[in-house]
Fold:
Amino acid sequence: MSLIKPSAIEELKEIFVKILLSRTDRVSKVTDGSVLSAIAYGSSKLAQKALKDIALAQSHFYPDTAHGQYLDNIASMYGISPRFGSIGSSTYIRIVADIGTVYSSGVHTLKGSNGIIWNLDSNVSIGSDGFAYGKISSTTTGSITNVEALTITEVTPIPVGHSYVINEYPALGGRDIEGDIEFRDRIKDAINLLSRSTLSYLKQVMLKFRPDILRVFNYGDNGNGRIKLAVATVNGSNLTQPQLDQLTIDITPWLSLDELNPDGLGFVGVELLNVDWQPIDISFRALINQDYNPDEVRKDIQIRMNKYLDYRVWVPGSNVEWDDLLQIAKSTEGVEYVPDQYFFPFQDLSTDYGKLPRVRAFLMLDINGAIISNGSGTLNPVYYPTIADFSFISTVLSGL
Structure:
């Protein structure tokens, strides 16, 4: 809310005339075109200019009244990280290939129908199941990289033994350059001296060097006297070891004495690593109303489930309630029936402190366990098994 708000000329002129009439009995009224009216107008115009200049100066100190470059000036003045730039998105892909086929990070790239190029975060090797899941990140930035499910279908170069690749879940986390509203809120929530020993302080420090940092977790001691701090990024992608090492160097001047080794050397008592992600695999059968497009129904279910499992606001240690996921699927418009006995996960999933949930696999089958076609034949049945996919659910969820 603005502290100083310039008033209209007529309002200031009225105040001037009221003050004038209250201080003398020789003037009964001030008519338009008179000398006193001109004096009142001139005084009001000067007052209005003064108020405008004060409001302009105020905008350099108070985020509530600032916008554009003035917000940038405030951030620079108080040492707050500059306006965030755009970042890309990330997601999981399901790769179907012969056993032993290897997809190498930095060698194989993925591409979708929208033309966006994706890199593998790490190498993927196909095991005995005949398929595996790999995490990918976009090479370009912006909200345009938030693509829909079932759109990333190409790999280059194609390795020997490759069959198909598909993203069963949308790519999320892509962001355009930070707007005034988000920037203003971040400035108002800036750190202070009382927060110096908190994880929020360390997050704000890291944001000065990496605007894609989302959350910071304390993973305890690494056994060598160093505090393990895990970082999660906005789009869910992992930082490389060189990036983690550089971030450690960048934040060193802002660490407290408790976080520095008292040996006089250039080492710090903090080890940075990537946050642990807890993959959530979902599989269910559903009867879709014939008047609804199954692709649109699938998108609606995924959007609602992603809001429920949003890792940006997830409370560490909370449970993933399987019946909540089931209810989301059942209550989505266009879904007539979802049998409980074929819904996975079939029990609540606990998440450890410091772990963030993220949907990795998403299988939507018809009542008979076959693929739900969109009618155009663009979805190849090999993307989904003809029966509910028990193998990856039993191997993954049993170890959670």
Remarks:
- Residues 262-266, 375-400 have pLDDT under 50 and may be disordered.
- The chain has four domains: 9-77, 90-166, 191-274, 276-397.
- The first helix runs from residue 9 to 23.
- The CA atoms of residues 213 and 233 lie 4 Å apart.
